[in-house]
Design goal:
Shape: globular
Strand content: 15-25%
Radius of gyration: 13 Å
Order of helices and strands: EHHEEH
Number of domains: 1
Distance between the termini: 42 Å
Structural class: alpha+beta
Length: 62
């Protein structure tokens, strides 16, 4: 029987995402509030999955 392994996207902090995109965390929080960027909450921490970041970037290019 074959088994599959699920690969989850790495979770990035807002500071990491802001550095990658060369924007401020305030801008990221604005995009989050507008529901343009999907986030994951881990307690009080906010994280962005690599996959969600790529989806967000693809939608901004169109």
């Amino acid at each position: 029987m074959a088994t599959t392994t699920s690969r989850q996207s790495p979770l990035l902090t807002l500071v990491e995402v802001a550095a990658r995109l060369a924007v401020s965390t305030k801008t990221l929080r604005r995009w989050i509030a507008l529901e343009q960027l999907r986030i994951h909450r881990l307690g009080r921490q906010i994280r962005v999955a690599e996959e969600d970041l790529q989806t967000f970037l693809a939608s901004r290019r169109a």
